[in-house]
UniProtKB/TrEMBL annotation:
InterPro entries: DIOX_N, IPNS-like_FE2OG_OXY, IPNS-like_sf, Iron_ascorbate_oxido_reductase, Oxoglu/Fe-dep_dioxygenase_dom. Pfam families: 2OG-FeII_Oxy (PF03171), DIOX_N (PF14226). Keywords: Antibiotic biosynthesis, Iron, Metal-binding, Oxidoreductase. The keyword Oxidoreductase applies. It comes from the Bacteria. One of its GO terms (biological process) is antibiotic biosynthetic process. This is Isopenicillin N synthase family oxygenase.
C-alpha cells in the first residue's frame, strides 16, 4: 500500500461509508494530485444567524450545505474584531519565538499517545512528524489553563510560560466556546432536529486551544524532501474554529471531483472545519473535512512564519455518543473515549502504512493529534 489511501472512510467504526465518496487521496502532496483552486468555501455571516427569520434560515442552509459538501466554511460577523485577531496572531508568534527553548521544553507534555503529546503542553518541531523537518511546533491548552469559573486560577497559570499569554488568549477562547455552541445548534436545525438536544453534550465544553507555528523556510522548494507540513487527516471533534493566515498552506480534499483545493481566507474571518464527531452523530450526513498543510509555493511566503490558532471541541471520555434521532443508525452507541481511540488508531494505521519499506511512503511520519493546521 502506498501513501495513496484506497478507502479512507471505511473501518473507523466497522461500517462502510461509500456514499461519502472518499475514493482515495494522498497523505502528503504529490505531483499526481489533482488540484481545483477555483473552489472557494462558503462564506457564512453570523449576523444572519442573529437576524430576522429569513436571514437565520439563509445562514442555516448555507452553513449546513457547506458541512455536507466539504466540511469547511468561512465565518464572518463572528464578533471578534480585527485588532483582537491581529493581537491573537502576534501573541501566538511571540510565545514560540521569544520564549527561550529551554523554557519551552519545561512545558513538553508527558502524557503521550500515538507518538506525540495528546492533551496539554508544548509540542517541539520534530516531535509530531520527524520526517517532515519543516512541519509545525505547537502548544496546546484546555479549559483548565484559563482563569475561568470552575477552574483553579492559580493552577491555570502554571500551564503558561508567562501570565500575559493566559490573559491574551482567554477572551478568544471564550468567544470560540460561544460560537461553537451556536454553530452546533444551527447544524441541528439544518437536520430538522431540536437545536437544544445536544446542549448537555457540549456544555461545559471539553475543548482544546492549539497554537501552531510553521517556521520560515530558507531552502528552495526543490531541495525539500517533501512539501508536506501536516499529513492529510480529519479532526476528531465536533467543530474546529481557526484564525485565517495570509500564508498559503491549508488544503482541503473535495471528493466530488477527487481534487484538492488550496484555501484562502479573507482578512478578519475565521475558518470552520467539521470533524469526525459531527460526522458520527449525523450518520455521515455531514462530512468530516479532509485537510492537510503544505509548504507555500511562493518563495516570499516560505520566508515568513505561518501562524494559526485553533479551537476544537472534543467529546468527554465518559460521554455516550450516538446517532441523532430521526436517522437509521448502523452504529451502536460508543463512549467518547472509545470513539477518540478508534479514530486515532485509524490515523496511526494510515501513517504506519507509509513507513512500510515495500511502499513509497515517507518513513518516520507520525500523526498529528489535535488538528495542526
Amino acid at each position: 500500500m502506498s501513501d495513496k489511501e484506497t478507502n479512507d472512510a471505511v473501518s473507523d467504526f466497522g461500517v462502510p461509508e461509500t456514499d461519502r465518496a472518499y475514493s482515495g487521496y494522498t497523505l502528503v502532496e504529490s505531483r499526481e494530485d489533482n488540484f481545483d483552486d477555483d473552489f472557494r468555501p462558503q462564506v457564512c455571516d453570523m449576523a444572519d444567524l442573529r437576524g430576522a427569520p429569513a436571514a437565520r434560515d439563509r445562514f442555516i442552509d448555507r452553513f449546513g450545505t457547506a458541512m455536507v459538501d466539504v466540511g469547511i466554511a468561512i465565518l464572518t460577523g463572528h464578533g471578534i474584531d480585527a485588532d483582537e485577531l491581529q493581537a491573537i496572531d502576534r501573541n501566538a508568534l511571540n510565545i514560540f519565538t521569544t520564549v527561550p527553548e529551554d523554557q519551552k521544553m519545561k512545558f513538553v507534555s508527558t502524557d503521550c499517545a500515538y507518538g506525540e503529546p495528546y492533551y496539554l503542553g508544548y509540542v517541539p518541531l520534530q516531535e509530531s512528524m520527524p520526517a517532515l523537518p519543516h512541519a509545525v511546533e505547537a502548544w496546546e491548552f484546555d479549559r483548565s489553563a484559563f482563569r475561568i469559573t470552575g477552574e483553579d486560577a492559580d493552577a491555570a497559570l502554571g500551564y503558561w510560560p508567562d501570565e500575559k499569554y493566559e490573559s491574551a488568549f482567554r477572551k478568544f477562547w471564550h468567544a470560540c466556546e460561544e460560537l461553537t455552541q451556536q454553530l452546533g445548534r444551527a447544524l441541528l436545525q439544518y437536520l430538522d432536529v431540536d437545536p437544544s438536544l445536544y446542549d448537555q453534550n457540549i456544555s461545559p465544553t471539553n475543548d482544546v486551544l492549539r497554537l501552531n507555528h510553521y517556521p520560515p523556510i530558507s531552502s528552495p522548494i526543490e531541495d525539500l524532501a517533501s512539501p508536506a507540513r501536516v499529513l492529510s487527516h480529519e479532526d476528531y471533534g465536533l467543530l474546529s474554529l481557526m484564525t485565517g493566515s495570509p500564508v498559503e498552506g491549508l488544503q482541503v480534499y473535495r471528493p466530488q471531483n477527487e481534487a484538492w483545493s488550496r484555501v484562502y481566507t479573507p482578512a478578519d474571518s475565521l475558518v470552520v472545519i467539521s470533524g469526525k464527531w459531527l460526522s458520527y452523530i449525523s450518520d455521515n450526513r455531514f462530512r468530516a473535512c479532509t485537510h492537510r498543510v503544505s509548504v507555500p509555493r511562493d518563495p516570499a511566503q516560505r520566508a515568513v512564519p505561518r501562524v494559526t490558532v485553533l479551537y476544537t471541541l472534543h467529546p468527554y471520555e465518559a460521554a455516550t455518543l450516538e446517532v441523532l434521532p430521526g436517522f437509521q443508525p448502523e452504529r451502536p452507541p460508543i463512549s467518547g473515549k472509545e470513539f477518540m481511540t478508534r479514530v486515532a488508531d485509524r490515523l496511526s494505521e494510515r501513517c504506519r502504512n507509509m513507513t512500510d519499506p515495500n511502499t513509497s511512503g515517507h518513513a518516520g511520519i507520525r500523526p498529528s493529534i489535535n488538528g495542526a493546521w
